Amino acid sequence: MLESRATVGPYWEKPVPDDEHLAQQVEHGREQHLMLDARPPAELNQLTLATMRQTGPRFWIALAGLGAMTLAFLTAWAIQIFSGLGITGLNRSVMWGPYIANLIYFIGIGHAGTFISAALRLMRMDFRRPIARAAETITLFGLACAALFPIIHVGRIWKLFYMMPIPNQRELWPNFRSALFWDMMAITTYLIGSTLFMFVALIPDFAMARDHTTGWRRKVYGALSLGWRGTDGEWHRLEVVSNILSFVIIPVMFSVHTGVSWNLSMAIQPGWHSAIFGPFFVVGALYSGVAAVILVMIIVRKTMRYGYFMREEHFNAMGIFLLILTLSWIYFYFAEWITNWYGNLPLEKAIQAMLTGPLAPMFYLMLFCNIVVPLGTLWSRRVRTSLPAMFIIGILIQIGMYIERVLIVAGSLSRNELPFNWVNYTPHWPEVTVTLGTLAFLGLLYMVFTRFVPIIPVWEVYEGQAMQESRRVGRAVVSTRTEVH
Amino acid sequence: MAEERNNGHKWTMIVDLDKCTGCQACVVACHAENNVPISSEDEVIRGRANHWIRIERYWEGEYPNVKARFLPVFCQQCGNAPCEPVCPVYASYHSTEENVNIQVYNRCVGTRYCGNNCPYRTRLFNFWAPRFDEPLEQQLNPDVTVRSPGVMEKCTFCIQRIRRGREQANIEGRPLEDGEIVPACAQACPTDALIFGDKWNEHSRVAQMVPSERQFKLLENLGTEPAVYYLKGGETHVGE
Amino acid sequence: MADFLLLGLFDNVETTADVIDEVRALGVQDGQMTVMSNVPYPVKFFARKPVRLWFLPFVLGGAALGALVAFFLTYVTPHIYPIEVGGQGLRPVPPTAIIYFEMIALFSMLGAFASFLLQNRFPILTRRMYDERITDGYIGLEVRAPLTVAEQVVGVFETHHARVIKREDAAAFKPQGIRHLLFWGAVGTGGLVALLIPLLLSYDIVQIPWINKMDDTVVVGAQEGPRLAAPAESVPVQGPVFIAGEPATAPLPATEVSLQRGQALYGTNCAMCHGLQGDKVGAEVGKYFPEIPQSLAARAATLSDQDLFRVIRLGKNRMPGLAENLNPGETWDIVNYVRSLGE
Amino acid sequence: MIHFTRREFLKVSAAGTATAILAGCAQETERWVALEPYVRAPEEQLAGVPNWYASTCRMCPAGCGIIVRVMNGRAVKIEGNPEHPINRGKLCARGQSGLQLLYNPDRVTGAVRQEERGSRKFEPLAWNEAINTLYEKLDAAGDAVALWAGSTTSGHLYDLFARYAGAVGASAPLRHDLTSALNGVGTLTAANDALFGRSALPSYALAQADVIFSFGADFLGAWLSATGFGVEFGQFRSQPFGKRGLLVQFEPKMSITGAKADRWVPVQPGAEALVAAALLRIIADEGFGGPARAELAATLAGDVDLDAAAVTCDLALADLVALARAFAEAECPVAIPGGALAGASNGVAAVTAVQALNALAGAAGGAGGLGFMPAVPATLVAPPASSYADAQALIARMNAGEIKLLLVHGANPVYDLPPGSGIADALAKVGTIISFNPLVDETSALADYILPDRTYLEGWGYEVVQPGFQGLPVINSQQPVVGPFYDVRPTGDVLLTAARGIPAAAPALPWTDEVAFIKEQITALPKGASGGDDDEVRWARFLQHGGWWPEAAPESAAPELTAQGPVAAAPAAFEGDEGQYPYYLHLYPSVLLGDGRGASLPWLQGAPDPLTTVAWQTWVEINPATAQALGVDHGDMVHVESPHGAVEAPVYVFPAIRPDTVAIPLGQGHSDLGRYARERGSHALHLVGVTLDDAGANLAWSSVRVKITRLDKKQALARLESTIDPGEDIHVPF
After folding, report:
1. Hey, what domains does chain C have and what are their CATH numbers?
2. How many CB pairs (< 8 A) connect B and D?
3. Complete domains list, chain B, with CATH
């Protein structure tokens, strides 16, 4: 019969070894690893909830700034609806411009969230625990903002319900053969799935918030927690449903960005019609998405003082992940480029010539942001664990990936089969306003969200902390993870 | 998909590049017949000139052995139209009766996907509300709707004339005659460079002209099966 | 005998497991105990039997429903309104596969989630035994026991230094019953109603009046003025209707088709005064006008075709002209028909 | 329901079985002036059912027959009249656009008086007052009245004006505008007179030709009768037995005719006469085309430096010889002179030299492409075109104060003449100016009164067509297809009413209204193709079919050469020193805007120019090599200066123009003419002086040199074509 090593007392009261050397190692482990740095949940609950309620002047200034930009975006949109898409820079050849690039981009930055959460969950990676919710939230709002763009993009927004899978009075249904319809289906599925996945994981945290707040918040959290008590049955089902959702949502995630890429690659437009677009876009989306998650982690950690939860180890892990994605992205971009280059088809050559010709500044900026900087720096642990460095890298990757999307959408379209109809695209103010405004809107949603919803999945942290402990092996102290399943 | 014969008509246009002088008669005729609005100077500069039929001019060679080649391009009414399946709302579809591409304006939501997917770039988007300075609107053809902003439009082979002609023949209980239905462009063309008819009617002019050795289809390699056939321009050399 | 609900909070898993063992020894069934925690401790920590899970049928059922929806979208809807696009055929396979994938994924996720809610009987709408300190990391043990046993259980709790011990009459906690089902029923109904809203739009039952630019497009209606017809002197391409000196001919032979058309046109334009057979029978208007001849055929026999044509177009005495309603071709059809009446 | 298609209508009506009936009632034939209220619809005015009217296009002087589709009292489409011998059912862009003249937003809506000349402040005038004013002014002016008509002024109006002028002793109406100058009407007439003794416009049967040598004539674009020539060209290119015809175009800047040519020869401006003479010389020397042709060529060919001729057109002499051979040995060769050739300082000589080539065809007993229309067997003749010298004479009289009243109809002399003519100053010395033009153009802006005529779709008229096709003399009918859109009166009626009070003129103009006059003229014609024994029937048929023409072409002999001796081959002289002004200026009428009267119509403004694909603008065409030397590219503004004036316009780098030549299209640069034309582009006629050609009668509008200075401005060209250079890899997809 094995003896339980647990001592009497809560799991966060771990015994300190008598040996000074070992005690130092334990202390070091606590500093390094969140999972070993167990603290009383009561304290952490308060830490989580307290930052949610604090709204300093800087918060309000940021909120007002983002709100103003959002307002500008809504105004530009309204003007666009009433005066027609003529105010944009689109033309008879480039009929899709930044709006579609934005769709791809926003889906992209929302892409990594659920992936990090779901895939790492299935793989039992502990470093996901404090950052899963922040990542999922990016997914949720990234998708929501992305879903705006087909709406902003269309010419007759007031007839958009024709695209829903419902009949009209002539029993006419939408066309399931259209890539836009697949895309809509995929985004809907992903949005619903992500929401469910996120909500399921939120229930215990809502219960926690319910138990430690008063007044209207308590009522709201009470309703949202659906009467969660944390019984063993509830926990068991939650684990299972989370695993099922994780399992289903990963292929859906792949299908979403593949679907988006198919919007382009189903067209026989040179520069678009490429079988590699599916995986290429998925990797690109993960790339920009992971960078976005890192950005959000930095911002959340800084502004909400969650230094306890988000530690160097997390940035390090994400940095390594980002480096892998950098390499993957380079691989795909190169594969795409060399295929076009080697094929030597006139139009694809013309597109490449345009990228290295008139659009060269943008093209090389993209390469700098997406290849040079990440590849040149991320191999260093010091860079990976430095918040300012990671912030800059994250921003650069966002810029680079955005440029890449615009070049693919608007750049390719400006070259087509009949050279008589080549028209270059120049953005006009509505596209710029709407794009920046939507970014602000995403930030606004995120800011407001973090004030109402625990952005750290505390129960997952507790779970990890409860299941891990330091163990002496020989002369070293190592952490031990309890596999409970 | 090979061309499958059904009970409808296969409306076909033949463009004889040897005869097209680029004179723009078809362009203006189309504007008049189909209520196509005029794009202003600024819109043209921004690359939004809208003509359902446009005459592309390609230069060949250098001075003094330079040649200008005219290529009238309008909706090719493809048999395997790339623009059709991409429309999520069936605003662009294939008529099995007339075998042309139909654009349903009041179904169109303006995703412009069809415009991207048209290799001929013959689909136009209504970026603005069409404007007709009063009283120019008096001229509008009542058989053709003026498109609202936000919808795609394109050459219809003057479907209103096709329908009128077919109904007329129906009423009179007789088969359609070749040449009875002519779109505005072909009707105006001074040199007879545009010839229109039903390819499935063996006696029609187009059916007899399609097998010409000068015949080719625009961007034939894309497999769009256009219903527009071009006849290559020739050249007579001095001394022949 | 009234049951009591007891709740004790303990510091850690070991203690709780000990308590459960001891409570079980008191004769309390496993099913009468519930462990509550802020961390998902596996039930085996407490030597308890795992709960029965019902996910598989829901996930599979969801997948089947998704497949059904996909089947409807990809196979049935093209059948309802067949539209050919791009020479792809009505039901191409590759797009079908995509729709199947997405729909199966969506509905299986929805099924899993629904199963999760239903198994947990969420939302809990009745009061439950609970203590807020559970989310602070303490493990709660709820025990349902009759009064006598309850006393002993409390004893066990005290022995193991339970932080909190709550004791209440079980009657104060009403069973959940089917309340959550009713709740989800209401939510589902509301959702369905919300989903029907787009149908109101797509079926044109509700038309949003404030923006529909198709209504604002430039249009010149047939009835709008100024309708400036050419002066009568202008001669249209189809030829003048009246030219003095032009040899008179009836342009339409009295063919079967012409007579049929003439009959229909006569029925619309003439019969209310002259009767269907020209005999004033059933002429609801004509009966007030004695000057209308009893036999139109006989009267017409006295007139030339051209005179008949003129009378129909221009009217005569109190008979109105029908030039506005009939074009010359139609007028000739009526002339032919009137001629045929006498035969 | 019986609705024939239009085609069917024509067939049926031609067969004499139309829906025409005898109506013995006299009241039906009276002129019906009042609008018919709609409760009593005119025949065929059914909602949704189109009605077709045949009439005549007056967007240019070619005189194509049109049929107008009218729905609910609105003209919605103009199409070619399939029966008409000129255009044979086809219609050019300008013809299609006539509807926008009818419904032009800037039309003068009624009679107006201008407060002060050029103020453009108009106050409405009641028509009786307006007619009274006209009467008073006419009465006061007596024979000091001048009438300035344009090439599209209806024939009946010209005839009425001429009768009035004759009656009061005034000089005959002047019929001159930029179109006639650009078409080279005077030059062609003079050359034909010199060669064949026929003072008329030539007609060319291109359909039967197998070789066409066109010297500067853009007969497919904007020259004389482009639609008619277009139809003929279509037939020329699809002759039986696989014969395709050979078209060689000699011109310094490629026109659309040049674009369709099998061989485009960039001949130096002004050297066309030399080339034509050289061709004759070669034919004569080499004996090409048989003895008859060679002999005749020998009599016509002067002493020509063949090498110099070859150099002027950038050809090797062998090529020139090959061309001469192809021409001489063709069964039916045609040579067409026109365009800038006719505006050169040696215009008549050059046109004569080219026209002389046509004489060869006849010499071999071939059909010959050149012909002259047989006269209409009646009193109706085409009104003579006045030369620029006539216009100058009138301007001189104006300057001398001899003109008290100037009536302007269908012409816009302020725009149509180069500023050097002094027209603007001369107008200031005229007592009263009355314009009858439907839009406020540059001349109307200087008028005291505008009594707008009806547009051609609302009014009556006839026109003797020149030049004709298929050997058929044609008199076009013009009838209202819709009621007048505004309160505007036909100038004919206005003139007849006013003249009634003038004792000298009243007997000469006895008609109650213009329709009576037209009808009288038309019913005097013999029976034509549409038949009709009776006057009324003939009149109706005239209107129904869109005109009068004989059933078959009358017999006409090939034109006989009356000229003797060799043709002159002297090169043209150019104003401006070659060192100071290094480039020849090649002006040409825009295919779409014509001489500028199309500029008020948005369809024409918005349609791209065929070769440059530029819309809405004026541009300067420069050879790429020249552009490189000047350091300019597409859209760079340049200052083009001649000894007579200067204009600014953006550059279009045009590959098909001689490096020593720059070309500017005419048609834009209006200061008036409505919102679509105003302040748009520039008017290159300002570069032209007032030199006369070798006949001393016509304006040598193509005889200046210019210099070009780059300005530090850009003006994006409104091009339909891509502004992106596709590079070497991209090939034309056909």
Report:
1. 1-177 (no CATH), 256-341 (1.10.760.10)
2. 251
3. 11-231 (3.30.70.20)
Contact C83 B80 (CB under 8 A): no
Q: Which residues face D124 on adjacent strands?
A: D112
Q: What is the pLDDT of residues C270-313, one digit of tens each?
A: 998 898 888 888 888 888 888 888 888 888 888 877 778 878 87
CA nearest to D727 within chain A = A350
Residues D208 and D280 in one domain: yes
Q: Which two tokens stand for residue D539?
A: 């009149």
In chain D, what residues touch A418 (CB-CB under 8 Å)?
Answer: 733
Is the ipTM of this structure higher than 0.90?
Answer: no
- Tell me the average pLDDT of chain D: 87
**Domain assignment of residue D432, yes or no:** no
In terms of domains, do D613 and D477 share one? no
D586 bridge partner residues: D663
Residue D532 sits in the same domain as residue D592: no
Check whether residue D214 and residue D332 sit in a common domain. yes
User: Measured between CB atoms, does A356 come within 8 Å of chain D?
Assistant: no
Nearest to A84 among B58, B113, B149 (CB): B149
Is A236 close to C83, i.e. CB distance below 8 A?
no
Which residues touch A33 (CB under 8 Å, ≥6 apart)? A311, A313, A468, A479
Chains that touch A (3 or more CB pairs under 8 A): B, C, D
pLDDT digits (tens, 9 = 90+) for D507-548: 999 998 899 999 999 988 888 888 777 787 788 889 989 999
Is A471 inside any structural domain?
A: no
List CB contacts (< 8 A) between A184 and chain B: 88
**Token pair of D356, please?**
């002389």
- Contact list in D for residue B25 (CB cut-off 8 A) is 90-93, 95-96, 227, 230
In chain B, residues with a C-beta closer than 8 Å to the C-beta of C216 are 129, 148
Residue carrying structure tokens 């295919």: D591
Chain C: nearest CA to A117, how far in angstroms?
Answer: 16
How many independent structural domains does chain A possess? 1
User: Collapsing DSSP states into helix, strand and coil, what is residue C140?
Assistant: strand
- Tell me, what CATH number does D16's domain have? 3.30.200.210
β-pair partners for D55: D66
Instruction: Give the chain C residue nearest D43 (alpha carbons).
Output: C323
D250 touches chain C (CB under 8 A): no
Q: What is the pLDDT of residues D466-480, one digit of tens each?
A: 888 888 889 999 999
Residue D11 has pLDDT above 50, yes or no: no
Question: How confident is the model at residue D605, as a pLDDT?
Answer: 94
If you count them, how many residues does chain D have?
734
The string of pLDDT tens digits covering residues A92-149 is 999 999 999 999 999 998 888 888 889 998 988 888 999 999 999 999 999 999 999 9
Query: Has residue A20 been placed in a domain?
Result: no
The two beta strands, B11-16 and A476-481, are: unpaired
Rounded-to-integer distance, Cα D684 and Cα D733, Å: 36
Residue D420 falls inside a structural domain: no
Minimum distance, in Å, between the CA of residue D538 and any CA atom of chain C: 10
The CATH number of the domain holding residue A336 is 1.20.1630.10
Same-domain check for residues D530 and D603: no
- pLDDT at residue D27 greater than cutoff 60: no
C:D CB pairs within 8 Å: 189
Q: How many domains does chain D have?
A: 3
CB-based contacts of D674, cutoff 8 Å, min separation 6: D104, D105, D106, D439, D440, D600
Domain limits for position D667: 583-714
Beta bridge partners of C144: C5
